[in-house]
């Protein structure tokens, strides 16, 4: 009994130490990012943009890391969610209803991938490619055949509070804050939404269904052996994940002030980079920490890209090239580091 108690205490101590290390790394990362933004004259709008795309990083984490499903559907669910949100706002619906509808639209996109995989026995990668190919046309139909739907003059989640928030900010801190009022408002609103979503998702992943989804990704044979419906878990997992991509699309559309049919182009690579960046920098251990790491990775991605643009004074036409470089750095650096460690071990370094 004493040995068991000692082992339990030792395990608890290790977990406490790991949690403390995670939050210390997070605090240090915040300080480093703040220093880089200040030194590189990076606008805080990069933080707001990172938060807008953050749930797309969570989508990739859920599909690749939790469900173990090679899924590219995020590239289709994101613009479909954004288009759904924009069309509803233009037609007089509230931003909250538009965001909820964007979740449903993204979830249905994930459902399409799941059904193709289950019914036709087509592997996830190819199934998702089929869906994102069709999603382009679906997005066009949602937007009434237009490739772009502007939100100029419409009430969005941001414009609703923009005037009052700007007035309060100027009154409290002076006229110099006027230019940053929209960026600060986006950070606050998107931050609250992401915290709520992460809280709900953390709770969901600890329920019986959530644990079954996690088990499906870890050991599908065991899930089948215990009598759980493996296919149902894939459906719920993909619908949940891509529903979040739809929400991300709705936030970005309201941030940009328009919906575009090509808005989700290359988002899967960006999401993968966000997941890897977060895991490398924060080294998370628990589900909650992994969710936070995915969001953090997306923030680091956007801030890094903005820093490169500011430091090198590049034109906006280079945005895709810079994004590719950031993704390459995120994916390649951990591998180079592993190879370097292996080299040192072999040569007694």
Keywords:
single chain, 349 residues
Structural features, described:
This protein has a two-stranded antiparallel sheet. The chain is 79% helix and 2% strand. With 349 residues, the chain is mainly alpha-helical. The chain has one domain (25-346): ABC transporter involved in vitamin B12 uptake, BtuC, CATH 1.10.3470. The N and C termini lie far apart (44 Å).
Short description:
The protein is mainly alpha-helical and 349 residues long. The chain has a single domain, classed as ABC transporter involved in vitamin B12 uptake, BtuC (Orthogonal Bundle). It has helices at residues 2-39, 45-66, 74-90, 95-119, 124-142, 157-173, 181-204, 208-218, 220-225, 230-256, 267-282, 287-312, 319-346, and strands at 148-150, 258-260.
Lay out the secondary structure.
Blueprint (H helix, E strand, L loop, with lengths): L1 H38 L5 H22 L7 H17 L4 H25 L4 H19 L5 E3 L6 H17 L7 H24 L3 H11 L1 H6 L4 H27 L1 E3 L6 H16 L4 H26 L6 H28 L3
Antiparallel strand pairs: 1-2
Helix pairs in contact: 1-12, 2-7, 2-10, 2-11, 2-12, 3-4, 3-5, 3-10, 4-5, 4-10, 6-7, 8-10, 11-12, 11-13, 12-13
